[in-house]
Design goal:
CATH superfamily: Glutaconate Coenzyme A-transferase
Protein name: 3-oxoacid CoA-transferase subunit A
Enzyme class: transferase
Radius of gyration: 18 Å
Number of domains: 1
Shape: globular
EC number: 2.8.3.5
Pfam families: CoA_trans (PF01144)
CATH topology: Glutaconate Coenzyme A-transferase
Strand content: 25-35%
GO molecular function, one term: succinyl-CoA:3-oxo-acid CoA-transferase activity
CATH architecture: 3-Layer(aba) Sandwich
Number of helices: 6
Order of helices and strands: HEHEHEHEHEEEEEHEE
C-alpha cells in the first residue's frame, strides 16, 4: 500500500462538510500547519474539531475559525484566541471544554478500542453534569466516553513511506494519541525517509495507524508567547 501523497491538498482530500477531525499539537507546537492550510483552502465547513488548543487568531485552527469552518470545538485550553471567544459568546460556536488529562485519555481510549472509562477529574463541576458517577476506593469518579474522528491530522518530525512516525520534543503531545483514533490518519512530516531508515526502537506511532503521509513545507513553528529573561 503506497501511503505517500504529493502534498497537503491530496492528504486532506475526502474531508467533507460535517465531519469530525482530530488535530494534534500543544499550543502551536507540533500542529499540522500544512494540513490546516489545505483545509482552509478547501472551504470545507460545519466541522467538529477535537484539539487541545484552538490556535491563535491568525494561525493554526484560528485560521479555520476566521473562515467560520468550525461548528464545534472539543478542547482543553482556548485562552489565546479572541476569535474563538467571540464566536463562543455569540453562540455561533459550540464548545465542549474538557480537563486536559481527560481529553488525552479519551483520545487514547478511542484508539485502543475502549468505549469509556472512569476518572476523578471534573467531579463536582460542570464537567460532570449529566454523566454517570461511581465510587471507587471511596472516591467519586465520572464516566467519560472515548473520542474518535473521521480524520486525524497529525504532525511528526520524521516518517517513512510505511507511515511509521517519530515526534520531536513537545510535539510528542496529543499527536501519538490522535494518530490512533482517526478512521483515516494523515501525517505530515518534516523529513520523509525510506522504510528501514528509522530505528524501530525510536518509533512512536507505528505505520499501521497511518493511511496517508506527506512531507510538509515552509514550517513557521510560531511561539504563542515569547518570554525572555531581563539582562
Amino acid at each position: 500500500m503506497n501511503k505517500v501523497v504529493p502534498d497537503a491538498a491530496a492528504a486532506v482530500a475526502g474531508i467533507e462538510n460535517g465531519m469530525t477531525l482530530m488535530l494534534g499539537g500543544f499550543g502551536l507546537c507540533g500542529i499540522p500547519e500544512n494540513a490546516i492550510a489545505a483545509l482552509v483552502e478547501s472551504g470545507v465547513t460545519d466541522l467538529e474539531c477535537i484539539s487541545n488548543n484552538a490556535g491563535v487568531d491568525d494561525f493554526g485552527i484560528g485560521l479555520m475559525l476566521q473562515q467560520r469552518q468550525v461548528r464545534k470545538m472539543v478542547s482543553s485550553y482556548v485562552g489565546e484566541n479572541k476569535e474563538f471567544e467571540r464566536q463562543m459568546l455569540d453562540g455561533s460556536l459550540e464548545v465542549d471544554l474538557i480537563p486536559q488529562g481527560s481529553l488525552a485519555e479519551r483520545c487514547r481510549a478511542g484508539g485502543a478500542g475502549i468505549p469509556a472509562f472512569f476518572t476523578p477529574a471534573g467531579y463536582g463541576t460542570e464537567v460532570a453534569e449529566g454523566k454517570e458517577v461511581r465510587d471507587f476506593n471511596g472516591k467519586p469518579h465520572v464516566l467519560e466516553s472515548a473520542l474518535t474522528a473521521d480524520f486525524a491530522l497529525v504532525k511528526a518530525w520524521k516518517g517513512d513511506r510505511d507511515g511509521n512516525l517519530i515526534y520531536k520534543g513537545t510535539a510528542r503531545n496529543f499527536n501519538p494519541l490522535m494518530a490512533m483514533a482517526g478512521k483515516i490518519t494523515v501525517a505530515e512530516v518534516e523529513e520523509l525517509v525510506e522504510p528501514g531508515e528509522l530505528d524501530p526502537n525510536q518509533i512512536h506511532t507505528p505505520g499501521i495507524f497511518v493511511q496517508r503521509i506527506f512531507r510538509g513545507v515552509d514550517y513557521e513553528k510560531r511561539i504563542e508567547q515569547r518570554t525572555v529573561r531581563e539582562q
